[in-house]
Amino acid sequence: MEVTGFFTAIIIGLIIGALGRLVVPGKQSIPIWLTLLIGVVAAILGTLFAGVLGVDETAGVDWIELFIQVVFAAIGVSIVAGAYGRRR
User: Is the pTM here over 0.85, yes or no?
Assistant: First the structure.
């Protein structure tokens, strides 16, 4: 992953976190900053995973990579919301 890809993943990650939260059904009682952090991590992991699959460099918008990132974010939000909810 190049430096520009890393910073792009962080910026996109902020949006990905919100999308991941919207995909997960029910109420998630986690703070918005945690959702955004999950989104950034999901964007980075999704970009790396897309690279492993060989779909990180496509012509135009990388829809497959974006989908992978949202899936990672939804999984992350689900896990953290479950753990965070039990902690409170």
Answer: no
pLDDT tens-digit map of 12-38: 888 888 888 888 877 778 888 888 888
If you search the block for the tokens 């790396």, which residue do you land on? 48
Q: How many domains in the chain?
A: 1
Q: How many residues does the chain have?
A: 88
70 closest CA partner among 60, 78, 59: 78
Q: In which domain, by residue range, is 72 found?
A: 3-87
Helix (H, G, I), strand (E, B) or coil at 76: helix
In order of 9, 10, 15, 45, the CA distances from 56 in angstroms are 12, 16, 18, 12
Distance CA 37, CA 79 (A): 13
